[in-house]
Each structure stands twice: as C-alpha cells, then as structure tokens.
Design goal:
- The protein has 363 residues and is of the alpha/beta class.
- The protein folds into two domains: 299 residues, 3-Layer(aba) Sandwich (Rossmann fold), CATH 3.40.50; 45 residues, no CATH class.
- Helices cover 40% and strands 17% of the residues.
- It contains 17 helices and eleven strands.
- The protein has a five-stranded parallel β-sheet with strand order 2-1-7-8-9.
- The two termini are 31 Å apart.
C-alpha cells in the first residue's frame, strides 16, 4: 500500500475525533520540533492538543549536574568534553560556555569516542565526558568505557547523566496532574528498547502508546493510530516505525549497556528524584566516574527565577505561558535549557510557533 498523504491523514484524524477533545504527549523532543517544522500542527484539528514531555535530554538534566560540570571545567588540567547543546545551559554561576570564556577547558564533541580520543591526545589532562542522553546514546558511552579499559587509558572519565524514558512516563501518569490520553513514543529510543518496552504504560496505566518516526506522514499516521485507540477506549502498543524499530529492540546494544551500567535513582529537572530512572556505573567500572575520581557531588536541583521549563517538560503548560518566553528568554539569551537545546520545546515554539516564526502554528 502506498504511503498516505498528510492532508488525508489529518482529515481522518479530525473525522475520527468527531469533536472529542484529546491530549497526546510527544515524549521525544525531536517529535516536538518536527511536528512544528513540517507544519503538522497546522493540519491538525483544534480539539487535538499536543503537549511536550520529558524527552529532551538536555532539558531534563538537573541544575546540580550543570553546576558540577561547570565546577570541573574550572579545575586545572581538566578538559570537559560535551555535546554542543549542553554548553549554553545556564547554571548558578554561568554556563560551560561562560566558564570557557573564563579560561576553563571546555571542548564540544560529537561522540563519547571523540572524548576518548582527546584523552589519548592530551595525556597530561584529565578528560571528563558529560554522558547525557537517553537509551539512544547510552550504548556508545558503554562501548567507549570498555574501549578505554582495553586501551589502558587512565585519564578518561564520564559524568553519568543518562536517563531512562519509561520511568519518567510512569511518573507523570502517577502524578495525575496532567491529563494524558496517549503517548507518541520516541523513534530513536525505541530502536534500542523496542516497542514492547511500553507495554507496562499501556497495560498498567491504560494509556495507548504508538512509536513514531520523524517524517510528516509517519508522525500523522502515529497520531491517527493513537486517536483511534483513545476514541475506541483501547490501550495498546502499536508501532508506526517498523522500518527501524523491532518489538524486541536491539539486544546487542542493551547487553552492552547492562555490562557497564545498572539502574539507579536520578534527578530530573523539576521532577525530583525518580527511582530506577537513571544509570550508574557498575562497581567494576566505577573508577571511570568523575564523581568518584574527583571526590565531588552534585548540588540540589533548582530553576532560574521565573523559568518554567520544568513545567513545560511535564506538559503542564505550553512555552508561551511562561512570562519569560520570547521576552527575557530567547535563543540568543536563554534562561532555561528548553530554549537552549535543539530538541527543546521552548526553542521549537519560538522558531516555528510564533506568528512569522516559521511553518506550523501553536495549538
């Protein structure tokens, strides 16, 4: 069967809803951006509300983690290696970018292996990789730690900040503050964990889950599948991205992660400490943990004054409802991480959701 066009999919979504109001959560930050960028939101009926979820790894990283990264960047002979989105996230004493301006050694890398290469090239430096991300990037971190061990590289460390998606989804439902009728589940994460991983959300919490890709028609197809389930009173896991996502996911990648990491409590920005929602290094690899090596710890989580990023990533409000949005907080002068990250909801709304801001309309 040939792929359906976006307009016919949007029309069927509207006819299936038949005026019923439904709220779906985009768990993935890339979905948030692409639903704006492709104009998908402008095609959808007004009774369908799409809200952001905790799927932007930079956005959910606690303030204490950012502050600790800035602290390490100020240490002599320490190089902090980070993905680009993290460098501008404001901390209590400034961002990593500002720390670099003060003389700190902060380097943007594209992978954990780039950070390991830096450690090999700079044996006189201690290189700390900011290991932030969901299940998508965790296997690469695990593989790099094993490579460091095999190569005898003793000046490479990670600051563990990896998060697990499903515990956050369950925490939102348990909190009961946000009406969520169904979840648009992340494609990249699902390549690793598999579509079957969402069954507890569907079966225990009665919320349908549909894994989606990132093209316009694929996202709308997933939305239609969710709407059909909600209207029919069903709660199942479906996969609209079966070209990339298998039911069981990538077993090799998960085994790699299980060899190096184990589940642990983790701090999520404004959501508190969620049990078994993060990953810590197993005892055999604890020597690569920057916290252990440098004898440091994270401070408490906090939000910059007036910033409501924590509420945005929980679907409690849309970015324009924050008093700082587009005024004191812009991509050039971000107050919170949701305006910094390329997957951040505030950045997406600012670029695409404002009048004259690009394709797509706020909804």
């Amino acid at each position: 069967m040939p792929p359906r066009d976006a307009r016919s999919l949007a029309d069927e979504i509207a006819s299936t809803l038949a005026g019923r109001r439904v709220t779906l959560m985009e768990v993935c930050g890339t979905h948030t951006v692409n639903l704006f960028r492709t104009g998908a939101r402008s095609l959808l009926p007004p009774e369908l509300r799409l809200i952001s979820g905790p799927g932007c790894p930079v956005c959910v990283t606690g303030q204490g983690y950012v502050d600790l990264a800035c602290e390490l960047a100020a240490w002599p002979d320490v190089t902090v290696a980070t993905y680009g989105d993290m460098i501008r996230v404001p901390g209590r004493t400034g961002s990593l970018e500002k720390q670099r301006g003060r003389g700190g050694d902060v380097t943007v890398v594209y992978s954990a292996r780039d950070a390991l290469r830096l450690a090999r090239e700079r044996p006189e430096h201690q290189v700390v990789f900011l290991a932030v991300g969901f299940e998508t990037t965790t296997p690469a971190t695990a593989a790099t730690i094993l490579e460091a061990e095999a190569g005898g590289v003793d000046n490479f460390f990670v600051l563990p900040g990896h998060k697990l998606v499903i515990p956050a989804m369950e925490a939102l439902l348990a909190g009961g503050e946000v009406p969520i009728d169904g979840f648009l589940c992340p494609g990249h994460v699902s390549v690793i964990i598999g579509s079957a991983a969402y069954r507890p959300v569907a079966e225990k919490h009665g919320r349908p889950c549909v894994v989606a890709g990132f093209e316009l028609a694929g996202m709308l197809e997933a939305v239609l599948m969710l709407v059909r389930q909600v209207v029919a009173g069903e709660a199942r896991v479906e996969n609209a991205y079966d070209l990339a996502v298998a039911e069981a996911g990538n077993a090799v990648a998960r085994q790699l992660v299980d060899r190096v990491f184990r589940p642990a409590p983790a701090v999520w920005r404004a959501m508190g400490t969620l049990p078994a929602s993060g990953l810590e290094l197993k005892p055999a690899y604890r020597r690569y943990d920057a916290r252990v090596h440098f004898g440091v710890a994270e401070g408490p989580d906090a939000s910059p004054p007036g910033c409501r990023c924590g509420e945005v990533i929980q679907g409690k409000l849309d970015p324009p409802e924050c008093g700082l949005f587009g005024v004191a907080c812009t991509p050039l002068q971000p107050v919170g991480p949701c305006m910094v990250s390329s997957e951040g909801s505030c950045a997406a709304w600012y670029k695409y959701g404002r009048p004259g801001g690009g394709r797509g309309e706020s909804r």
